Structure formats: structure tokens, C-alpha cells
Amino acid sequence: MRFIDANVFIYAFLRPKKEPPENVKEIKERAKAILTRVSDGERVVTTVVHLSEVANVVESRGGKKKAVEVVLAVLTSENIEVLPVSPSDYLKATLIAEEKNLGVNDALAYVKMKELDIEEIYTFDRDFEKLDVRVVKV
Predict the structure, then answer these.
(1) Cβ burial 89-100 (10 Å sphere, 16+ → b, else e)
(2) What are phi and psi of 2, to 5 degrees?
(3) Is the pLDDT of residue 32 over 80?
């Protein structure tokens, strides 16, 4: 099982208002390929915090209706497990974020991965390359 970062959903579901640069087009295609793997049966996990991050970005750029669609798609997917997050998880994440110079939500993903012995992550965030996890390239 792999962790799936918020940015995968954001790249896959959001349509740019203008023509994106080639590197963004490539990332969008890779994000869609990851979600195809998931819809074809690959199991992944994320957290309620990462899902909230997706909802906020999609709502601000694509509207409330699109955000609801995306959140419902994730929550009703048989192959995506959305993990709860406790205040203790966030405390651990904050300490790791400070120690490793990461964003707090990136550190939270790392905390949950370690908790569940997950070694691989789908993400387009290079900060994960600093950690002892494997970023899966698709």
C-alpha cells in the first residue's frame, strides 16, 4: 500500500484556466495515471487533513460543486482509505516539520506512513526526497 499526497488529486482534478506549461501538463497526466491505477484496484491511503487540503484548493479554484464532487469521489472509493488525524499526530508532525524543514502536512504524511509501515508515496512534492521514503514515479 502507498500513501497518496494531496497534490496528486489536485493535479488530476483541477483544470487550468489558461494553457499550462509542458511540465505541468506532464504532471497532470502522471496524476491521472496514478488515479487510474487506484480505480483499477491499487489500494492507497491518505489522511482527512490531506483530503481537506484538496477540498480547499479545489473549492478556491474550481468552485464548491467541484470540491464536493472530488471529496465524495475520494470518500466513496473502495481503494482509498482516509485516515483520521489526532492532535498527537499533529504534534509529532510539527516537531518533524521543524527538525527536517518540511511543511507540517508533509510531515504529517510522513508520520502516518511510519505509523503504518508504508514506505512509498505518490507525490509531486520534492521535499519527500529528503526523507527515508520512496517517491513513486509514474
Answers:
(1) bbebbeebbeee
(2) -120, 155
(3) yes
